[in-house]
């Protein structure tokens, strides 16, 4: 007879196959020492019975050819056989008395018969004839419970066959492993206990091994056990089983939705990672482009948040979408380049890298004050973007109204000058951020240019500004002084003409990577970039809805971005959906985000993902999932594994498990390292990159060039404003 088998073993390693040494084997079959109606101890959950077994197996050195196996075969006992067994136990009881389970039977065993008395015991003392007991309780002799033991009505009973086998390269070591296993099962001793029988003859050993290997059910003697006696060894290990060799389930997480799309490269899907579908097969799960608006990815550093975002960015870039990836450290860009080096992407690819630059290195510039492709109505947007970016980076808040006003008026004056230069087809004569300092510090330069401004703009500088305290100016110029200490930032902000225009990137589906790493003013750069993204998104209201191309943005190190952007991340999540701008943020600690940003992202998110996290962070996330996942489950997630929920067909899914896939695994067919030189050349052309040395040289003379243009001085003039005033 064959039976279902539970095999608890530590498997042999490769060393067992390589070893040529003799192997010594110990065998033992555990059987009930006393009649099987007497119960073993019912093992509870504290301590976990599997703790001792896992500890015993953990000491087995599989690399040396050792093994330790526990095989528990179970065959259920039918209720008919159990009833027959119960009747025989009652019949064998020599001193049956008029009680059942401590209560007096209502009818005598002789007059009413055994069946009626037994029925009365089960019905609470009332016989079928309705007779009631009279007289005092008789002395208890032998209770029916003593006769049937653990085989009470309603009990599930199993026949068992319990076989132990150990092997090692030395006989004493194999014996020692066997004693460890016997000690584990000694804990089951109660009214009954398990006794070990060791086969000695060749025939007995062969029969043992046959049963062990095939599952043949032929125990040495009949032994029936109940669920309480077995449950401690048949359940999975609990949290109280701390042995290191135990494979953990990782906690309970709902299964993935059966309707979750499968990603095979479709342009209308966004890959999420490897997901086990209801049929048990692992596939690449995906979200639908139409459902994914804003996302929040949380968890520890180095656990795959950036990798997950990079996979999605590459997929959408190949699908033809515009993307914007703010990568503070530049690691994501270095990994992405070989997978983007393809002709249909290189012509759309932009890169801004603010690491250290050499004079001959090709770099791109961005002038936030540039008025190219803009009109008078755009001046206020340019002023707002620059002012709020610098103010947020310096954490002015509401405590520096005078400095904010001076900066706004300065940005307005310079933007108006730039509009004039662009209108006159002289975009190279535009002011940059560095002219903010020149305008405020060099009075002769400012006074020479004031007559070219409208009267309302001049009034502030001629009447109001001279009355302000001089200590307000250093507050404004502080940020400019900071970026002026970095050659990479001088090259980035120092050219009048921009190679970077986020609005053009949105409308033309550009693939943009921004890496402000290495700069001394990362906060200022990030502020300006985030604010410019928000401004450009809002400016798309001039485009009909059906003509707006969907543009995807990712922001890594969201906590740092939030501390510098001061509310603009929240504004992006609240306002840019209608302008077809999607945003996903990644951060280690959601609790460190400002309240307004955290609330906006959670309110509007259609993707919420977390890898392993601290308990407080995990509890914060799991509260959004209404108890479907516990914080302990999140804290124990393996590296590159996530729990996430998404919007699917307009409804929020329950959380499900996702295994992160690295870029090289999911996009191996896109890997093209040989195309990187052509990609770099294409970026030079796409963004009009220039040698950093040339930009820095032109920046030295830009103040003079601006004066020469606006004051209509002859070419080669030294730009001394005092000459023009005489």
Tell me what you see in this structure.
By secondary structure, this protein is α/β, with parallel strands linked by helices. The chain has four domains: 5-79 and 160-234, Alpha-Beta Plaits (2-Layer Sandwich); 91-148, no CATH class; 255-362 and 504-688, 3-Layer(aba) Sandwich (Rossmann fold); 365-498, no CATH class. The chain is built from 30 helices and 22 strands. The strands form five sheets. Strands 11, 12, 13, 15, 16, 17, 18, 19, 20 and 21 form a ten-stranded mixed sheet that branches. A hairpin with a 2-residue loop joins strand 19 (641-648) and strand 20. The longest helix is centred in the middle third of the chain and has 23 residues, at 401-423. It is elongated, with a radius of gyration of 40 Å. The N and C termini lie far apart (117 Å). Residues 1-7, 14-19, 107-115 and 117-142 have low confidence and may be disordered.
């Amino acid at each position: 007879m064959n039976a279902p088998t539970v095999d608890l073993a530590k498997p042999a390693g490769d060393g067992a196959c390589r070893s040529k040494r003799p192997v010594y084997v110990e065998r033992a079959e555990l059987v009930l020492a006393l009649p099987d109606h007497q119960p073993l101890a019912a093992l509870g959950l504290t301590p976990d019975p599997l703790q001792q077994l896992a500890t015993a197996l953990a000491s087995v050195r599989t690399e040396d050819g050792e093994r330790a196996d526990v095989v528990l075969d179970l065959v259920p006992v039918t209720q008919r056989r159990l009833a027959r067994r119960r009747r025989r136990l009652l019949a064998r009881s020599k001193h049956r008395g008029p009680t059942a389970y401590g209560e007096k039977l209502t009818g005598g065993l002789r007059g009413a018969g055994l069946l009626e008395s037994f029925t009365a015991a089960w019905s609470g003392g009332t016989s079928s004839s309705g007779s009631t007991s009279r007289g005092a309780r008789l002395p208890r002799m032998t209770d029916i419970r003593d006769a049937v033991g653990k085989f009470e009505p309603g009990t599930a009973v199993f026949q068992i066959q319990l076989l132990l086998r150990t092997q090692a390269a030395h006989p004493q070591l194999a014996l020692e492993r066997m004693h460890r296993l016997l000690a584990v099962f000694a804990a089951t001793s109660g009214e009954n206990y398990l006794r070990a029988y060791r086969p000695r003859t060749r025939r007995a050993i062969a029969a043992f091994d046959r049963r062990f290997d095939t599952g043949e059910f032929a125990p040495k003697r009949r032994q029936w056990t109940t669920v309480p006696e077995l449950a401690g060894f048949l359940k999975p290990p609990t949290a109280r089983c701390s042995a290191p060799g135990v494979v953990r389930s990782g906690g309970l997480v709902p299964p993935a939705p059966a309707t979750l799309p499968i990603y095979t490269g479709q342009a209308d899907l966004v890959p999420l990672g490897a997901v086990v579908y209801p049929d048990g097969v692992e596939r690449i799960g995906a979200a639908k482009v139409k459902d994914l608006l804003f996302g929040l990815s949380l968890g520890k550093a180095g656990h795959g948040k950036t990798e997950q975002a990079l996979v999605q960015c590459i997929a959408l870039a190949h699908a033809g979408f515009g993307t914007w990836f703010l990568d503070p450290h530049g690691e994501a860009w270095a990994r992405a380049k070989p997978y983007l080096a393809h002709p249909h992407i290189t012509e759309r690819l932009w890169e801004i890298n603010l690491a250290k630059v050499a004079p001959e290195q090709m770099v791109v510039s961005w002038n936030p004050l540039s008025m190219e492709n803009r009109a008078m109505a755009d001046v206020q947007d340019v002023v707002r973007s620059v002012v709020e970016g610098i103010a947020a980076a310096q954490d002015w808040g509401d405590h520096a109204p005078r400095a904010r006003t001076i900066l706004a008026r300065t940005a307005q004056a310079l933007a108006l000058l730039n509009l004039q230069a662009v209108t006159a087809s002289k975009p190279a004569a535009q002011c940059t951020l560095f002219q903010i300092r020149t305008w405020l510090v060099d009075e002769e330069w400012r006074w020479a240019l004031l007559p070219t401004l409208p009267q309302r703009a001049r009034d502030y500088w001629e009447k109001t500004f001279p009355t302000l305290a001089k200590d307000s100016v250093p507050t404004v110029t502080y940020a400019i002084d900071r970026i002026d200490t970095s050659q990479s930032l001088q090259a980035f902000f120092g050219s009048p003409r921009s190679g970077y225009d986020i609005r053009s990137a949105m409308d033309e589906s550009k693939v943009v990577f921004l890496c402000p790493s290495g700069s001394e003013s990362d906060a200022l750069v990030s502020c300006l970039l985030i604010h410019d993204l928000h401004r450009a998104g809002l400016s798309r209201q001039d485009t009909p809805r059906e003509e707006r191309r969907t543009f995807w943005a990712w922001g890594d190190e969201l906590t740092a971005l939030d501390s510098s952007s001061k509310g603009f991340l929240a504004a992006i999540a609240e306002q840019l959906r209608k302008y077809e701008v999607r945003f996903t943020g990644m951060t280690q600690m959601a609790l460190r985000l400002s309240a307004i940003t955290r609330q906006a992202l959670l309110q509007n998110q259609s993707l919420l993902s977390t890898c392993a996290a601290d308990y407080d962070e995990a509890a914060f996330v799991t509260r959004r999932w209404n108890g479907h996942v516990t914080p302990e489950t999140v804290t124990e997630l393996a590296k590159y594994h996530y729990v996430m929920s998404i919007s699917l067909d307009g409804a929020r899914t329950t959380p499900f498990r996702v295994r992160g896939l690295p870029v090289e695994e999911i996009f191996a067919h896109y890997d093209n390292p040989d195309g990187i030189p052509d990609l770099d050349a294409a970026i030079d052309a796409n963004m009009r990159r220039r040698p950093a040395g040339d930009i820095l040289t032109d920046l030295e003379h830009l103040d003079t060039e601006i004066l020469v243009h606006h004051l209509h001085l002859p070419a080669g003039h030294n730009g001394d404003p005092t000459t023009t005033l005489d």
